[in-house]
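Batch manifest, entry 17 of 40.
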Amino acid sequence: MKNPTFLVQVLPILTISICLVFFIIYKILSRVKSQAKGHVEGIKSADFKQISQAKMPPIERLKLACPALIERSQGFTRVGIKEITLSGAFVTCPKPLPVGDIFQIKIIFEPEKSLTLKADVLWNNDNMPSDQVVSRGMKIRFLQLSPDERLFLKDILAAS
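Output type: structure tokens
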């Protein structure tokens, strides 16, 4: 060590530089973490939850027990409707269809009142053990509702 004063002069600058690099890395990682959690800049997470809940309209859901028929290439399958909304329903059946299947369903509200709709399977509980399932079935979504079909469903929901 010919020049110990050089080390004394460079050590504080080196320490400050390393601290600055670590501080920048910390800030970048904390920003990435908060974005991954869904935090929006300038809004607290509690405020964000209140905003998102206020914008969502209430879902009109009718619990009922009515029969239905699913039309497939293999023929008709008799199922039940447990819940219905304007956009879909929960169908009870011993063997639910696979997710993504598209089919026709005829919902029989009363002997004179029925509605045939095109639907697809959003999810099913076929892979769950039977001791964890309240009702074996699937959640379906109605596709391509006409204004008359939508009005019919609204009337059914309003009558409850």
